[in-house]
Amino acid sequence: MGKQKTLIAVPSPQEWKIFFPKVPYGQTLKSPYALNALFDAACVGIGIVNFATNLTTLICSKTYSRVIIAGVAGALPHSRLETGDLVRVDEECVGDVGYWNHNEFRFFFKKPQVFQGTSAKLAPPSIAALPGVRGVSVNTLTASKQALEFRAKFFKAQVEAMEGVAAFSIAQTLGVQIFEVRAISNFTGDMDKNRWNLKQSLRTLQNQVLVPMWESAK
Predict the structure, then answer these.
(1) pLDDT tens across 193-210, in order?
(2) d(CA 187, CA 75)
(3) Structural domains of the chain in order of their starting residue, each with its CATH number
């Protein structure tokens, strides 16, 4: 089997501008940024729907055999994570399919819907070395302590973001390896982005995980 062609899938323009400040993100869905012969990068889109649609198109049109999601996440209650920490998300849950009733969230399903990433045994060394966690993918952020406690306890999740579960499901369907790496930029419930450790946490992720990975593939 030949060497894998890998896509680094960055969700948001804000994250992209920190990783690749000199590369315009707007055309990367049509023409992914070539890091070298084996690694491309693209700004795929925020949220489950955008990310799923664009990632599927990229995988099918460019024939990637491996996808690595790279971005930020929030640390849920009881996670014991701190801002600036780096994690590998091994499992993703569908986070907010349900309804609110008298200030209480009710999930439509009795058990969490959990999707598995590719085994860490098959990950590049800089990703395999990270601590593994469970994530929950949501459509909305919230400052509600009750909702955040529910997300942490019901899903047994440590981190929250908005795209991972879509990518895990798509990768399973299409037979593509999928890994997700996240830098903890904030604690969930903190809506003041001025307090988020966005730039430094992403630069740490880039320098400690992403660059060693594609540099070693040259």
Answers:
(1) 778 889 999 999 999 999
(2) 5
(3) 6-215 (3.40.50.1580)
